Structure formats: structure tokens, C-alpha cells
Structure prediction request, 158 residues.
Amino acid sequence: MGSLAAVTTALAWRKGSEFAIQGLRDGANLFVSILPNLILGFLLAGMMGVLVPKELVARWLGQKSGFLGLLTGTFLGAVTPGGPFTQFPLVASMWKIGASPGPLAAYLTAWALLGINRVIVFEWPFMGPTFSTIHLGACLFAPPMVGFAVNTAYKFVH
Prediction:
């Protein structure tokens, strides 16, 4: 990221100092507008880390949770609202307190493909019930399959 930032800044500067300065301003404004969400996401992740018992995470999302862990990760990912500033700190927190790679991969895949909040607010109203139902049905099996693949690969690598 640092290299990309340096290269794009240099390119903007070559185009003219006003472009580089505007780019820096735009980046700073974006940072300031996103900062509250970052802070809240990390705060939420920290609180989850101390409030959710490790035994509970191990039982439902841990190494021995098996296929039920993949389904649990899928369900939680589908129903948990929020964008990446919420999801990734939460996933990191779950990882830290004992969730295994497969259920976390299922969680992230379900969040991206099946997010119920997104479906209710955007997909259903814009695309209609037929499209939304078919789309959800087509995506339903992906999170557990991704979770299984990640668990399997992780065993070979780790």
C-alpha cells in the first residue's frame, strides 16, 4: 500500500502540484469521515473479545466444531449487519479467542454473498423477490464449501 500511495502521489505531482495537494486533501477527508466507523468497529471487536466466552467460540466455531461450525459461521455472517470496518475487526476478535479458519471463512463469505441486511435494504427492493430468492439460493452453499476448503488447506499449510 505504501508503494502504491507513493507511486500515485508521484504521478499526481507530475501532473501538477495542485493535483497532488487535492489528492492529499481528499485522502485526509476520507480518513476523517471513516475514522468513527473504524473506532467503533475496533471497540466492538474488543468488547466481543472480553464478553463472549472462549468456550462458546470454541464449541461453535472452533477446530472441533466440524460441519456445524461451518453452518454457524454461515448463519452469523448472513445475519450480522455492518461493513468491512465492523466485520474484519469482529472476525479478528473471533480468531483471537479461538475460532478456526473454516468457520471464519464461511462467516466472511456469507457476509459478502448472503447479507440479509443488504438483501432487505437493497436487493429485494431493486431486483425484486424472484431475482433475490434465486440469487440467495444459488449462493447458499458457497459459504460452507469455502469454509471446508479453507479448513482443509489450512491443515496442510499449518
